[in-house]
Amino acid sequence: MSTLWRDLPPLSMLRAFDATARAGSFAEAGRTLNVTHAAVMQAVRGLEAELGLSLVQRSGRTVALTDAGEGLARALGDGFGTIAKGIEDLRQREVRRVLRVATTTFIAETRILPRLPEFWARHPGIEVAMTPGPASVDLGREGFDLAIRVLEDGWVEPAGLEIRPLIRTPLLATCAPSLAGGDPLRMPWLDGPGTAWDKEQLRKAGIDPDTLRKVQFGSPHLEMSAARQGLGAMLATEVICRDDLAAGRLVVLPVAGLPCVTYVAAMPKGPRRPAVEAFAAWLATIF
User: What is the pTM of this model?
Assistant: First the structure.
């Protein structure tokens, strides 16, 4: 049978009596609840008045339970114990729940995966599952805790999401050193699924992508590897190709007018697990 809360005494009275029954004194119960002993005594007296029963008998600085008080103390002990166990089980389940992160393939490959051992060294109990892909996801509906997104200048925070900027970075035209020195308008460019946004940026920079010689590439997940092998030029943000530029695997082509974009961590607004906050804070350190 469902408990009808309107038929129960106030929870504050029940807590005060439970603490008194456990401690054996109003003063110790007050210290447990971080209130004065007078407040505890008043709450217990109020509970007795509401029930029409004597629950405690005061003897000096201690209190003894009546038969009715002992019966109520046992019932509250069982009830509060069940509540405490349920809450602890819930907390432990949340601690063990995998942290789900939606991100782009290139960010996962170049920034997160190489440094993930650092995160686990600081937070060994947090399991992270990443879902790389170009498509934007509905975080709440699809059960993601956090997404790494790319926003153009002028972005505004969407309703229901908290946006934490990670880095503002320029978009670059890049290629392997074997293609460097050539005319960007004459060299091959990688083309495939997910490159519509790239074509739009080239047009803004004064380059008609329809006139470029394209190398069809069926998988965007391998686009960076193809560029390193000299199969064609590509657009990439500086943060993504930073290590390749430093190692000489890629070079920057002279294409002016490309924009800057901002990588952000997007999280649903509202209460969130400490694991999500820890991962979001760590992300801010690796860009």
Answer: 0.69
